[in-house]
Design goal:
Strand content: 5-15%
Oligomer: single chain
Shape: globular
Number of helices: 10
Helix content: 40-55%
Strand order of the largest sheet: 1-2-3-5-4
């Protein structure tokens, strides 16, 4: 576990306007955005050695205690199942209005080693090897889940989209992927797991990032399906291959689908995954991109109403323009 002092994080929170983080009196570099968090770092040692996820979702210390317990358990379980993870840590930081914001930290990686960046560099055969290596790295979790579901026990979600992996030792000056490289799984901030079929993470946390006007319909129509997706190997591979469209590598799609279907039959036969099709992946990507654009538009509208009309604080940092 990383042990990182709170001082600079507290200074950043005290000066932060979540609507305009780039204008903070304590500068931060935004590394990326997730649905529930913002990933950032700082230029000041030792903080420049780490990437931080800012989680502004919690309403009490008891909620944070529960979440942190799940987070530690999830990291330990994934490591035990064979995934390689960066060193990680946890900081609790009071914000400008007295609420507690959770910062999840990891050793900072070279951004050029994140797999979606690597994908842009690689020739076709190397890129296909990278996609297969991701499926191979993730498979033990889903084989464990299959066995556990037969006898009862703990099962673990995994979001294997390509931006959730990093290639250890990657050299952007000599872009290649042979299949012998180690992959790091870097997105453990949504610690969803089940014990005897019961979800341990409170799903209401996901709804707190939703515009208030949409909470009821998201709970009714989407939440269970979205959460279930990450326990299903076929569906997470579908999502992984849909990333090829997002990342502008549709040239790989036909071969990647054939490779994934062969992987299902040869390496994951016990999971009985139906073959994927290009049509299904394109349809999934189109629907997912539309939902994300609408969702983000509603969040920006809610932020405007809360900050400009109601003159209140909107505590989540929203992403800027995202290419889809």
């Amino acid at each position: 576990m990383l042990e990182i002092p709170n001082e600079h994080l507290e200074a950043f929170e005290a000066a932060l306007d979540p609507a305009l983080p780039e204008r903070s009196r304590v500068p931060a570099e935004i590394l990326g955005y997730g649905e529930m968090s913002t990933v950032l770092t700082f230029s000041v040692p030792p903080y420049n050695r780490y990437a931080f996820k800012r989680m502004a979702l919690f309403r009490s210390s008891a909620e944070i205690d529960t979440y942190e317990g799940h987070y530690r358990h999830y990291n330990a379980a994934l490591a035990q199942l064979g995934l390689r993870l960066p060193n990680y840590g946890v900081n609790r930081v009071p914000d400008a209005i007295g609420q507690i914001v959770l910062y999840l930290s990891q050793d900072r990686l070279d951004g050029r080693s994140i797999a979606n960046k690597v994908l842009h560099d690689l020739p076709k055969d190397d890129a296909l090897r990278l996609l297969r290596a991701i499926q191979q790295a993730a498979l033990p979790v889903f084989l464990h889940n299959h066995a556990a579901s037969q006898q009862k026990g703990s099962t673990y979600s995994l979001d294997i989209q390509i931006s959730n992996w990093a290639v250890e030792g990657y050299d952007p000056q000599s872009p290649r992927f042979t299949g012998d490289e180690s992959l790091l799984y870097i997105d453990t901030s949504t610690p969803m797991y089940r014990i005897d079929g019961k979800e341990q993470l409170d799903s209401e946390l996901f709804l707190r990032i939703c515009p208030a006007s949409l909470v009821w319909i998201i709970r009714w129509l989407f939440l269970d399906g979205v959460l279930q997706r990450y326990y299903n190997f076929r569906l997470v591979v579908l999502d992984l291959l849909a990333n090829l469209i997002k990342e502008g590598r549709e040239d790989l799609l036909e071969s990647a689908v054939s490779q994934a279907n062969a992987f299902f039959a040869e390496q994951a036969a016990v999971l009985a995954c139906r073959p994927l099709t290009q049509k299904e992946i394109r349809s999934y990507y189109k629907e997912d991109a539309l939902i994300w654009r609408l969702f983000l538009s509603f969040r920006r509208m809610e932020r405007f109403l809360k900050t400009k009309i109601q003159r209140k604080r909107y505590n989540i940092i929203l992403p800027g323009s995202i290419r889809r």
